[in-house]
Design goal:
With 307 residues, the protein is mainly α. Helices cover 76% and strands 3% of the residues.
């Protein structure tokens, strides 16, 4: 029998202990989501409208912000609805789609950061060859790689999950998470392939992380003896490093809590750890880049200056 005919919906029980603060949480969440939309759309619009910003670094930054909007849109509208609803359910297919969005968003963020690191390596270490190597065609391929590859990898993970026979429909989270759905399987032996593919996925993105760290270590070594390169590093690479550290810390907290966290932790603390990567990076990244990168900062103030 098809699994989807056995379980048609999931119950999200992450909000069970926050009944008395629902309206306060709703307005606070709505404020955060509006802020995320404002800062990301402002930065995207600034880059798109100014032809002088149609350079690889800024195109990648635009891609980064678009991915932030993609990930947060997969979570906040449903979460806001749940805060006002007495019943917190999501359809079976809707849950799988949300899990796909959450995971592909996180993996795309890491892929984009890896491409950004490669771009900064070329700009600082091979400046004379930069525009020859980072052509429009190459940039287009790298952007497609950073979006399509994570989506396809996570689609495989979600497809394998959709084949499992589940014996429970209760998810102790605010949103659907693929690994938690896998743990609801009736037979642990059925999840072997899921585990193998999940570990392969983790290895792939751990290598992304190693590549990023190697790139920046090499850049630091290169920039030490050059005042010009040092200034370029401080202006363009420091925002990337801050974004990387913010992303890794927030995702690591969520993964550690999901895999090894104690069930005795207060639900509110578990919820905070779970949504950090959907709250802090989407707000911080546009703000950091907007203030740190001179071209964007100057253009932003020109566009929004009160005359």
């Amino acid at each position: 029998m098809d699994n989807s005919s056995l379980i048609t919906f999931f119950v999200l029980s992450g909000l069970n202990e926050t009944k008395n603060q629902r309206f306060a949480l709703f307005f606070l969440t709505l404020l955060c989501y509006c802020l995320i939309l404002l800062v990301n759309i402002s930065l995207i619009g600034t880059i798109i409208l100014d032809k002088n910003l149609h350079e690889p670094m800024y195109v990648l930054l635009c891609t980064f912000c678009m991915n932030g909007l993609y990930g947060t849109t997969g979570f906040y509208p449903k979460f806001l609805w749940d805060l006002l609803s007495p019943v917190h359910v999501i359809s079976y297919s809707g849950c799988l789609i949300q899990a796909l969005i959450m995971y592909s968003f996180a993996c795309s963020d890491l892929s984009i950061l890896a491409v950004m690191a490669y771009d900064r390596y070329l700009a600082i270490c091979r400046p004379l060859e930069y525009y020859a190597i980072m052509s429009k065609q190459k940039l287009f391929k790298l952007v497609c790689f950073s979006w399509i590859t994570p989506f396809c990898i996570m689609a495989v993970n979600i497809f394998l999950t959709s084949r499992l026979k589940l014996c429970s429909s209760y998810i102790r989270r605010l949103f659907c998470v693929n690994w938690i759905i896998v743990t609801l399987a009736c037979s642990p032996s059925e999840t072997t392939v899921n585990s193998i593919i999940a570990y392969i996925t983790i290895i792939i993105y751990v290598f992304h992380g190693f590549f990023i760290m190697w790139s920046y270590m090499y850049l630091i070594k290169t920039c030490v003896n050059s005042m010009e390169n040092r200034a370029k590093f401080m202006q363009t690479c420091v925002p990337h490093l801050i974004s990387l550290i913010t992303f890794l810390v927030t995702v690591l907290f969520d993964v550690m809590n999901m895999r090894f966290g104690s069930k005795d932790l207060p639900q509110s603390l578990q919820n905070l750890l779970a949504i950090e990567f959907l709250l802090i990076p989407p707000i911080m990244n546009p703000v950091i880049y907007g203030f740190k990168l001179t071209k964007i900062r100057n253009k932003f103030f020109v566009n929004f200056k009160i005359k």
